[in-house]
Amino acid sequence: MTTPTPLIPRQPTPDLNIELVGGENWSLSAQNPQNFTMIVVYRGLHCPICSRYLADLNAKVDDFAQQGVNVVVVSSDTPERAAQAKQEWKLDKLDVGFGLSLEEGRKWGLYISKGRGTTSTGVIEPDLFLEPGLFLIRPNGELYFVTVQSMPFARPAFGDVLGAVKFVIANDYPGRGEVVD
Predict the structure, then answer these.
(1) For the residues 47-64, what does the mean pLDDT come to?
(2) Mind giving me the DSSP string for the chain?
């Protein structure tokens, strides 16, 4: 397996093509947001923290849309597990993708963990799965903001991300972290 590739702000991201619960295909290159596309990678059905995190996003997705942000969430889960998460977690407003391969996750700089059996919610972890990440991408395909985690804890709060997006738009604030030496 390859090592994660760190993505650099103000540089192009890889394209991303995934299937959504419900049968549609989603492609980053086909997005045409006013300001950003936000990709949220979650750990999968086995993650109780993900259920609360994505429920918060589901409640705020219309606010992101008002700021010109397209939103998609995706995991390495199977179609069945992703559909179960969408239904049980009541993610009725979110586009939920599945099947993000571990190799593709590495291209996005994501961490991979080994499953440890049954979680506190009684769901079996997959043998291998992607850890969380959040990406804001400009309409031209350049990375604006990225955060990746090696654990399910301490993710950016969506209220904070929404406030930051509003500030960025109002102040034409540039992507930071672009210096590579």
Answers:
(1) 97
(2) -PPP----TTSBPPP-EEEETTS-EEEGGG---SSEEEEEE---TT-HHHHHHHHHHHHHHHHHHHTTEEEEEE-S--HHHHHHHHHHTT-TTS-EEE---HHHHHHTT--EEE--SB-TTSPBPPSEEEPPEEEEE-TTSBEEEEEE-SSSSSPPPHHHHHHHHHHHHHHTPPP------
pLDDT at position 1 is: 60
Walk me through the domains of the chain, giving residue ranges and CATH numbers: 37-169 (3.40.30.10)
Please, which pLDDT band fits residue 121 given cuts at 50, 70 and 90?
confident
Whole-angstrom distance, CA of residue 46 vs CA of residue 43: 7
What is the band of 119 on the pLDDT scale with cuts at 50, 70, 90? confident
Residues 9, 180: Cα–Cα separation, whole Å: 10
pLDDT (0 to 100) of residue 6: 85
Residues forming beta bridges with residue 17, ordered by sequence position: 27
CA distance 53 to 101: 22
Distance, CA of 88 to CA of 83 (rounded, Å): 9
